[in-house]
Amino acid sequence: MLEQLNQALEHIEGRLGRRIEGAELARLAMTSEHHFRRMFSALAGMPLSEYIRRRRLTVAGAEVLAGERTLLEIAVRYGYTSGEAFARAFRAMHGVGPGEARRTGAALRSQPRMSFRLVVEGSSSMRYRIVEKEEFRVVGRKARVPLVYEGVNPAIAAFIKGIGKETRRRIHCLSDQQPEGIVSVSDQLSEGREEGSEFDYYHGAVTGAPTPEDMDELAVPAGTWAVFEDSGPFPQSLQHMWRDVFTQWFPSNPYRSRRGPEILRTRLSQEGTRADVELWIPVERD
To answer: pTM of the predicted model, to two decimals?
Structure first.
């Protein structure tokens, strides 16, 4: 898998001045585009689109300082429709506009070329199971929230607090199948999963019961799920589990992620500093 991922990275380098198709990168990596983007983000620590943007602006920066092409020629060469758009992107990365950088020979920031290599760890095992689940519904309350990678998501915390104890109790009573109790469901995440991008968040229960009039529902088609379990400090252990699923488990198992909601069941300790977590990821065989 890592060899194919590195082939995709080589393809990116050869097309920095042209359009780069995610589907073609996924073909080189011998997986689906959805799974390729998830794997890349977990391994690289940034979305694929952000890496490509940074690499383009790194190479463009060298051309700006070299002075062999006009700024507009460089802008067009790296996919910008106008000099103004190029200048905004250039300044956002380098902290200085391209014209000023050329005049003053300013120091610019650089995104190094990436390559992936295998680091054998294996010091701890991951608890998981594969579940075939029929079509089901998630019933509860829904909100549109921004994606946050580190720490507690304040938008989600405020949303849950606003639901109220009685409504949470009613949601809990709807639960009649796995995963049991109240669950957190993330759906309609952006393809690149950029931090700050919005997604649908459900605080609900997996159920076959009728949906109350004052609640939202999400219908989930039948499919295969990889279910991971862990215990530890909250939310750090949960965030590390997300990372390990994509950087360790997927490369070692004959599955890839597929489109669909991701479900989390969390059982917090009384002081709220530790948790038992169960993470459901929609998967399919490679």
So the answer is: 0.72
